[in-house]
């Protein structure tokens, strides 16, 4: 059986589940009859309160974050400047004053 690749992650490991096709890598499900040429509209990155985030924005932390491998803690209200949106679990690349470059999740920030 020749199944189409996943429209989200392009994985070729898709399998049928009833009338749906399922991707085991990203968990995306779609109808088998949908046109594969359909271009998905890129969803905007959103902060914890629903504001759209764009490259170059400044954001503030909404909760304390312990830095992995360090005893340092980033406190609520710490600003991250000049963000850049990236793909992945940690979807914001930024610079934090006094700490340096790091990646954050958009769920723990709000637009300043």
Describe the structure concisely:
The chain is mainly beta.
> Span between N and C termini?
51 Å
The multimeric state of the shown protein is single chain
Strand tally is: 12
Helix content class: under 10%
* Rg calc: 19 Å
What is the CATH C level class of the largest domain, in words? Mainly Beta
Helix and strand succession? Answer: EEEEEEEEEEEE
**What is the CATH H-level superfamily of the largest domain?**
SH3 Domains
Q: Write down the overall mean pLDDT.
A: 86
Sequence of strands across the biggest β-sheet: 11-10-9-6-12
Overall number of domains: 2
Q: Which percent band covers the strand fraction?
A: 35-45%
CATH architecture level-2 label of the largest domain: Roll
Return residue spans where pLDDT drops below 50 for at least 5 consecutive residues: 35-41
Question: How would the global form be characterised?
Answer: elongated
Query: Main β-sheet, in a few words?
Result: 5 strands, antiparallel
SS-based class? mainly beta
Tally of alpha and pi helices: 0
- What is the fold-level CATH name, i.e. the topology of the largest domain? SH3 type barrels
Organism: Hydrogenophaga crassostreae
Domain Protein YjdM N-terminal: 3-31
Protein name: Alkylphosphonate utilization protein
Pfam family, one: Zn_Ribbon_YjdM
């Amino acid at each position: 059986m020749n199944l189409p690749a996943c429209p989200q992650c392009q994985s070729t490991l898709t399998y049928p589940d009833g009338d749906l096709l399922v991707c085991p890598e990203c968990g995306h499900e779609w109808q088998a009859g949908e046109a594969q040429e359909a271009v998905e509209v890129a969803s905007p990155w959103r902060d914890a309160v629903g504001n759209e985030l764009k490259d170059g924005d400044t954001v503030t932390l909404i909760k304390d974050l312990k830095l992995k491998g360090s005893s340092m803690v980033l406190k609520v209200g710490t600003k991250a400047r000049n963000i850049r949106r990236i793909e992945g679990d940690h979807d914001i690349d930024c610079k934090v004053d006094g700490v340096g470059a790091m990646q954050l999740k958009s769920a723990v920030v709000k637009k300043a």
